[in-house]
Structure formats: structure tokens, C-alpha cells
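Reminder to self: C-alpha cells first, then the designed residues, so the page reads top to bottom the way the pipeline ran.
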């Protein structure tokens, strides 16, 4: 629920950004809002990753299935590497 609420707010922010661009608003104000959207998305990303670790990765660990454990950890490492650029 928290992530969905945040995503709905971000959706509104993005619509406002489009309107700012459409209205030819001052560039730095637009960039400030872009940075706010990026920060908000990073918070959502963090919450989803925490949830993934707490549920999916933990489930693989508790299952005792070594293949599933390796897959979940590799998936997580790959995802984190991509987010780091």
C-alpha cells in the first residue's frame, strides 16, 4: 500500500513536470522537480527491494533449495549492479 500511494503521488508529479515543460517553465525549476521524482522513485525502489529480500530471498533460504538460493541472490546482485549504473 505504501508503494502504491507513493507511485500515485509520483504519477501526479510527472504530470506536473509535463505541464511545466509545456508551459516553458524555468529550466532549473523543472530540473528540481525531476530530481524530486527520481528521489521518490528511489524510495519506492528501496521499499520493493526490502520486501523482495524479506519475502522472496528469505523464502529461498528457508526452503533449503541451494539452486533457488543462488538464483535469488544472483538476481538481487544483478539488479543492484544495474541500479548503480
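Designed residues (85 positions):
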Amino acid at each position: 500500500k505504501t508503494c502504491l500511494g507513493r507511485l500515485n503521488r509520483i504519477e501526479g508529479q510527472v504530470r506536473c513536470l509535463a505541464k511545466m515543460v509545456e508551459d516553458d517553465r524555468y529550466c532549473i525549476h523543472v530540473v528540481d522537480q525531476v530530481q524530486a521524482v527520481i528521489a521518490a522513485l528511489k524510495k519506492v525502489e528501496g521499499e520493493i527491494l526490502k520486501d523482495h529480500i524479506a519475502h522472496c530471498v528469505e523464502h529461498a533460504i528457508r526452503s533449503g533449495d541451494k539452486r533457488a538460493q543462488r538464483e535469488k541472490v544472483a538476481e538481487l546482485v544483478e539488479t543492484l549492479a544495474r541500479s548503480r549504473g
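The chain has a mean pLDDT of 94.
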